[in-house]
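Q: I'm writing up a methods section and want to include an example of the input and output format. Could you take the sequence below and give the corresponding predicted structure tokens, formatted cleanly so I can copy it straight into the document?
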Amino acid sequence: MRDRAPDTLSIALSKGKLLEPALELFARVGLISKKISPESRRLVFENPASRTTIMIIRPSDVPTYVEYGAVDAGIVGSDILMEQATEVYEPLDLGFGACTLAVAGPPEVKTNGRISTKLRVATKYPNVTERHFTHKGVPIEIIKLYGSIELAPLVGLADCIVDLVSTGKTLKAHNLVVREVILQSTARLIVNRASLKLKYQRVNDLIEALRKGLHGGRP
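A: Here is the clean output for your methods example:
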């Protein structure tokens, strides 16, 4: 990847739920082959015809790859962008992968207003969580978790959680309810600031191609 041609555009796609719609969009506008499968174990795909190289990596790593110029652009959820606050250009809301970052907990737990003791909040979004509760004037203790966050209130590890909510079925299965909505998240196209200057035409073409592709068109 370090020796990629100067006219090649490298793009990082997020693994997980954003990958399939991203691949469909890229195939629709001719940036990648339609043969790429979301189940593939390969991490790098080159398309000489469109002078595009695709990398598939963890969502939380996409902003770092883009910020440091390891790739020119990437697709990642706005929840991760809010959490990491990386220095990247964000030219396009792709609209897919919509979900809500919310405070959830047992129905009896209150999260509004000032409380006398610290609220224990389990989350993998410590920065967004801290900003949210600090703005409300609510003292909290953050417990950083990386998975199975819904279990934290059940075992007494936390009073509530801050996590992504899509259908709400997982919360309901664990007797949790949404108490507050912090933000709405969708997939975003992000671009390295240096690439925006050095590869302006290629980046601009990418933005326009994806914009048209979102509306069923093709460049």
